[in-house]
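idk why but the lab printer keeps eating my pages so im just putting this in chat instead. protein + zinc ion:
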Amino acid sequence: MNYDVLHLEALPITPHEPLPNGDERRFQPMAITLISGENDAVLVDPPTTSGQAAAVAEWIAAGGKNLTHIAITHGHGDHWFTADLLARRFGATVVATAETIAHMRQQAGIREFLWDVTFPGQIPAAPVTAVTVPDNKFLLEGYEISLVPVGASDAEDSSVVHVPELGLVVAGDVLYNGAHMYIGDAAVDGVQRWRDAIAVVAALHPRHVVASHGDRDLDHDADRIIAGSLAYLDYAESVLAGKPSAHELFDALLKRFPDLRYGTTLAWVGARTIAAVRDGQDRPTAALLAWTTA
Ligand SMILES: [Zn+2]
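predcted complex ->
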C-alpha cells in the first residue's frame, strides 16, 4: 500500500483585480491524493474545474489502478465539484460523512452565485452523488480507511481521511502545508473550533499528512504541518483581538508569514469577510461579496 500526490497549480480567478499587495488573484494550489493497493485505489478530494479533472484522470489512468472510491473531506466545492465526473469515468463510488454530504448540497445551491463567478464556465455539472459508508469506514484491499469527523475547520462539518496502515491523514483543509489559511468561513467567529479539529487529527498520531492546500516543495511531515497550522491560527487570533480593519489583518498576516507563497487571495478574502461581519453583515453575504467583488 502507498500514496501519491498530484499537485495542481493555483488557478487565476475572477474578478481579476490584483490584491492590495499587488499579487495576482489566484485560488489555492491543490494537492490531490491517490491511495493505492496492489490493484485498487482511492482518490481523496477531486479538484474544482473540468480542466483539473482531466489532468487527474490522466494521472489515475497512467497509474493503472482500479479506482473504487472517491472520498470527500468537506463540503467546499473546490474539494468535490468534479467528483461525479471522475466517478463516472472510473466507475467509482463517491463517499463522505452525512454532515459533509449536507454541506455539499448547500454548496451546490450557491455555486451559481459564488463558484461559477470565481471560475466562470470551468466547473462541470456537479450533482451530489456521495453516499455514506457504515461507521464512516470502508476497505481498500482489506485495509481500513476511515472518514473521521472533526467538526469545523475552514468549513463546518469537516472530516479527514485516516489510513492507519500508512500512518497517513489526508487532511483536506483541517491542516494547511505552507499556505495562508482560509479564516473567512467557519473561523469567522473564532478559531478555537478549528484548533479542536486539529487536536482530533493529532490524536490519530499520523506520521504523514497531506493538506489539500500548500507548497508543493514541502514534505508531508505531520508534526511540522500541525505545528505550522496551529501557529497560523494562534497569530490570526492574536491580531483579531485588536479588531483590525481588513487591510490591517491582511498586512499583518503577510508580514508575519513572509515565506508563505500561496493563499494570499484567501488571506484577503478572509480579512474582508471578518471585517464585514464585525460591521454587522451576516457571514454568508459577507463571504460572497468578499469573493465576488474586487
Ligand atoms: Zn475548504
